[in-house]
Amino acid sequence: MAQGYKGFAQIAREANKRLEELKKQKTMDPLLEERGFIGPNDITSAEYAWEMRKTEYQQIKAIEKTGSPMVLNHADGKQHEYLITEAIKAGKEIPEEVLQDYPWLKAEMQELETVKESESISQTEQPNLLMGDAWFEENPTKILGEQYETTDRFGKPTTKVKGSMDDVITGINVPSVDVPVTHVEALESNIKDDVEHLVKDKVYKENIEQVVQKTKKERAEKELQKAINPDAPMVVAKDNFSFDDIMQQYNKGLTEDEIKAWVWYKRKTNGYNDETVVLAKKNGWSKYVVPLNEVGKQLDKWLKAGVVCYYNGDYMPSVLYYAENIYKRQSVLLREKETIIQTFGEEQYNRQWKGLEAVKPPKLTLTDPRKENRLFIKPTSSFGKEIRVGALTDGTAFTEYNSTTGKWQEGTTDLTDAFKQWLRNQPKDDFKKSSAWDIISYYIDGRTPSRHYDKEEKLRIRQNAKQEGDTFFVEFLAKGLTREDQLKIEQLWNERYNGYVEINYFKIPVAFTCSATFKNKPLFIRPAQREGIGFISVHGSGCIAYDVGVGKTMTAILSLAQALESGQCKRPFIVVPNQTYKNWLSELRGVVEKGQVTLTGVLPQYQVMDLYNLGRDYLEPLMDENGTMQPVPEYSISVLTYEGFNRLAFNDDTWDTIGNELFDILNQGTEEEREKVKLFEKIEEMMGRGVKGGTANIEELGFDYMVVDEAHAMKKSFTQVKGEQQGSGKRERAPYEIKSGQPSMTALRGFMISQYILRNNKMRNVLLLTATPFTNSPLEIYSMLALIGYQQLEKSGVKNIKEFFDTYIKTSLELVINAKLKPERKEIVMGFANLIALQSLIFKFITYKTGEDANIQRPNKIVLPMVNKREGDQVIALSPEEQISTNLPLTPTQRGFMQDVELYVTGRTSLTNFCVNPMGMEEESEDTSKGDAIDESNMSADEEEGARILRGLSFARQLALSPYLYACNPDKNPSYDQYVDSSPKLKYIMECIKSVKRFHEMRGEDVSGQVIYMNAGVSFFPLIREYLIKKIGFKDSEIGIIKSGLSAAKKEGIKEKFLAGTIKVLIGSATIKEGINLQNKATTLYNCWLDWNPTDVKQLEGRIWRFGNRYANVRIVNPLMEDSVDTFIFQKLEEKTSRINEIWYRAGKTNALNLEEFNPAELKMGLVTDPKALAELLLIEEREQIQDEINSLKNQQNVLTDIKSARDNFNSNIEHVNQAVERYKPQKTTDKHGNPIKVQARSIETVLKIYKDYLEDETTQTTYRDQNIYDTVRKANATLKRGLEQVLEPKGYDINFDFEQVNGRINTEIEEKQRILEERTGTEAVSQKAEEIIKDREQKGYKPKSVAERVEEFASLNDKVLTELMVYGGESEKATDTKRAKKGEVLESSADKLDKIRKLRGAFKQMQERLQRIKALKKAA
């Protein structure tokens, strides 16, 4: 009752207050009838302004001013509200839908009615403390802030309150406070969140609830007014680019006929969501619409001019015809050859054929001399099971049962089964680590080795079977198949996977209306942006993967303009990170301060809906009087954060449809019913809880186009590969054991919502933006491609993620060391197969541009160590005096520890001898996948060595940074100076920072920013900070630390202060690698912890190496420890960076991309530094090479034995075969006149073929022995041919060789090789090699340099790096820096206060728990 009474009292008070305001307003407009009359129009049947909606009124006025209904003017909206207000005063009848645009006016009308009913309340009654402000007037000390006088929106004087969070906290006097977890978490993501969660006490909460809800309502009204109320100042660019301006300026290579043909084709193929938009006379595209009665004549003209081509019984624009799947185009062209020649002439056919030949991608074959360029098929792939082949080149034939004749006859089998049969016929000595049985059973058939093998042995058997199986399959495809079958496979594979040619997107017409200025400067659309708009226009969906500074945002905004003006959408929405939200709003609509346009936006003519996190404040303006959500206005652009995106919901119908679809896709096959139910329940639990419990249904909001910024946040929707369905209903064993943790909620939601948008918009209207769409993870690649267009992937021949892996990914089971420094065997990606085809697939969905591609001005990047320079396409080594090295010597302590590691790596000591309790590294990581743990006692010798090497790698990385991070060092509590002085790497960085500081100070200028990155030793960051303050001379406020665990506000505050220049040195962990831009005043980034992934390194460098840096040069410094693993990792990073770039390199130099993490032999070179030990390692390769030659000779002896046996079998049975052949098909010995003729001996192949016909002839009588003899002779002949080619002929022998003689000769060769082995790799050879290493070092003048000397080299670049400026500072820059610094202070201060609240809540919670325990103990006593 009390709550209901208070609610009525508040309504009555507000209504009375509003009534008084209305009474004081001016009288109604006497010219209302004249001003509000519009007359007949093309937009609505209404003739008066108050009878039509705001958008309709704006469109009518826009047509009068610009000729287009798309360029809406906010001043017209202002006039419309004025007319509605005056009409209400005049008592005009206002339609309900018109009032939906102005909910506050609608509320006023309702409140007036309420006031009339409540006027009987006595004015002499004693004031009720629950009425209005009465209680606060009686208790002014309870006001949570400071009162001040101002005016309301109607100009009436009023009293308001302002205050901070501290005023709220200190003003609420309650006996006990319990801050719920939800409040702290909400405030950390958004400082503006409400205060009602601060207290639990019911009485106080009810009172505060009213204040908060009223404040929310007022704020919601203000936000709505800012968006659509004419009283609020809006951004209207003074100058706009018209549709014709854009058409003329950015379509210069296109003829009018090409544009018309494009519009005709889009209409014909149902390419417009709403065709009426482009048909409207005021729309710019309408002038390019060809009337239906003229289409035939135009098509004839366009065909002759080459504007269109004849395809599949119809016409297609040439820009599309000579692109995409060229093999398919040629196939259709051949089928229609006769029709084209008869109808249009042979010239037309030849023109199209030559055009296709000119652009067709080079065909990948099975027999390319360069194995790395051959097309790659896996024996377990669905493609391998789909293709059928006939007899093999070794004579193996396949039979199938003929039900008509009742006999078995020659037939075909699938490629995989053919490979099995071929594999069984291979010599045993060709298998190095496996056998035909192992490959067939444990790789192709996917069976598990029997129980008598232990876990490690099973993994090793499977690994060896897979490796050798793939190798043999490549050989089988190249040599085991007939040329006819090879050509068939090559044609089908290339048509399916390798036929894509990219469209020339500059030939796709683009046009729209936009501002002529952006951020107060002339708007210029760069070529890369123009190409991106064309890309999205063609495909409807895609990913703009542009490097930082190329213009992803601008490309997306202009693509939206194109989509809106071409009827592709009406209500697009953009999902953005919280930190870029305001940037998006300002770039769309501009910035207005104090009624003036301070920065112009790109699309000021469109209403921008500020939906932020889809909280109640932001959704309330979209509610009608019944609380029902209404769609956002047509031709508006909505912007929301990822938090808001995760609140989007589906209605039940959509959930049922999309939920089932997602299940089918994630499941990728049908489970047994019980397992199927379990999986579906899991998906429903993941998605239903968030999606169905959202705050707004996407159907109600009406969204029809999705743009996602930083879309790599959605790259974890597919995180594993499942086996396919078998005929029994069960699923095959998972063919790949590569996982990347659990799917992220954001990624799953993104996939579902993208599917909703695609399905409802003709598989179009999803646009992703990211500079790093994926690393080299195939799971991420597939997830991103599926997000854009899963159905298009299916059409491209990739039906599921297993097929994607089968076609493009190379994997292997390898030993790795986990975070606990324990070895485990884990399947890893070794590289990409069919790289050229993979590129074609990727470029269907993603357009990629680097900063260099787009000629973006970025600082010059100087990477240290600097040992090379680039001149054109050549990399030239610098002379020793030109080089800037970062190599640093190990300290005696580090060297002593490294000696232990060396002994362990080389197997000369055990782990327990020098490391009692090795701890894992303190390193931030997102990798959640797990391998199979291994019992080290069951390892083979090779695996023990691999485990030692990998663990040694971990130890060496720790030691290279600091001995205090070394897992086996028991001392973990250094002082700040001990921590830095014990690490040459950290000492070097401190002194380099000091040199930069001094250089600036001597010139009397601000010190530039420097960033220290390390993803290990995060707990020691405060010691580095202390050193910088006490030893280098920085102020406490000049050092910032960003690491995981900090709130978003805290990180943002530190970032803003660094950008403003108040923080001079920033120490960061992996947290800074993405989304935190630090470029404004930064000159140096020190990378203390080299990551294995080049993409991570690129992201890290991009923090300061980006457009907008004040300095013309930046240094990326990689301190490297001599005699450590640092050098190896740095070298590998360079190599891998080059290889990953090949994914995006379109020339297609090679068809295979190797991404192996490391070679154990190479790793040992980086770990071992002793000349003698290094000599032994260097000679291992030569020793293994000679040993392989010895093993090869021994294998030849085995082969000779097989050849001798085959020769004996052949000779003992061939006579029987020859006699049967002569009886069945005797050769002619005389001519028709009876004269003797010379008889040419039949080849053995001919004899065997005739003998086979003899066996299959129904008129002949044969026995089982005849069939057995045939098999024996055929196999013996194949062995003899192979032996002759591989062993006998290279040694100068023929098939009649003397076995004892040849075998003796091979024995002699083996003895000679063994002598060479000892001579070149024995004890004396090792000593000689060690001396050569020492001499080589002396000749190269190698001399270790101290930390101080390396710092001098670094400082020698200061004059160049720190004086050349890109953007010169001015007064505006100083003002911006001041604002940034102030903003940073506020954010960081607020975050610190929130942190205190969180700690207070934790303390309260602990106290409550203790009290409960005490009560429980007392009760128990």
UniProtKB/TrEMBL annotation:
UniProt KW Coiled coil keyword: yes
Domain Helicase C-terminal residues, every copy: 995-1166
UniProt xrefs under Gene3D superfamilies: P-loop containing nucleotide triphosphate hydrolases, Tandem AAA-ATPase domain
GO molecular function: ATP binding
SMART domains listed in its UniProt record: DEXDc, HELICc
Residue span(s) of domain Helicase ATP-binding: 533-791
Keywords, comma-separated and alphabetical: Coiled coil
Keyword Coiled coil part of the UniProt annotation: yes
One Pfam family here: SNF2-rel_dom
Ranges in coiled-coil conformation: 1176-1203
Name of the protein in its database record: Helicase ATP-binding domain-containing protein
Species per Swiss-Prot/TrEMBL record: Siansivirga zeaxanthinifaciens CC-SAMT-1
UniProt lineage: Bacteria, Pseudomonadati, Bacteroidota, Flavobacteriia, Flavobacteriales
